[in-house]
Amino acid sequence: MSLTPEAIKRIKQIEIRTRRLIKEAFAGAYHSVFKGRGITFDGVRPYQPGDDIRDIEWNITAREDGAYIKQYVEERELNVMIVLDGSSSALFGTAGQNKHSLAVDIGATLTLTAIANNDKVGLMIFGDTIETYTPPRKGRNHTLGIIRDLLAERPRNTGTNIALALQSVNRLMKQRGIIFFISDFLAAPEEYERELLVTSRRHDLVAVMLSDPLETRWTQDVGLVHLHDAETGQTQIIDTSSRRWREQFQRQTTRFNEATAALLNRAGVDRINISVEDDYIAALMHFFKKRARNIS
To answer: Which domain holds residue 248?
Structure first.
């Protein structure tokens, strides 16, 4: 699929917007949290004051005039998979953008960050089926292809099948990897509990949980409102002037969110909560810095 002029322009905008953040702070935080597979010998250099004497290369030091230190580099090439929820519920948005556009920006930023750290990146987009799958690889053309697919993606299937997405990750990714699962998680936790537990044992799974303010609270009285469920097609008329309805809505959403959080905690899955109102770069940075402190 060739790139349209609009897609090329958007890709350049994403690269420009994230380049400085990736170079100065974001990539460093990412790098410190997601370690490589180990270290490998990378040669020697002259000893400098402050170097650890345990790293002296004695064979070369004995032959040369002065001490020499062994150098090592981190082996990275981690496998990173961006799993993006492309169901119709992602089109909901009341704060200047919808969850879908937010998900695309987050996915593109994480892709560029992983590539900047010499990692391999892949993409999976799902609804109630797997719509797109690209295995992890490196290279600029591969990176542009992932971002192109993110920008071109439009929800084609209305439903959400989180269990299927997790099953597919487990089947397709044979080596341990980092999974950024970007979704609003508007599915009953029991529907994907088993698959989540399996994935969290095999991979480093991070849940990027997207939301809109009206999905968690409804404080305004705007009279009668027609609510349309984009995934089921059902329409319901509600009376927002009813205090009873607003309180019931709040209780239901609170129970649902608590059940989802409890499952993620049981599975040991880290999560990043990002609303369409939020600065997603700040939210990601906060997560990486917090996780770096926890593992240090």
So the answer is: 5-29+76-295
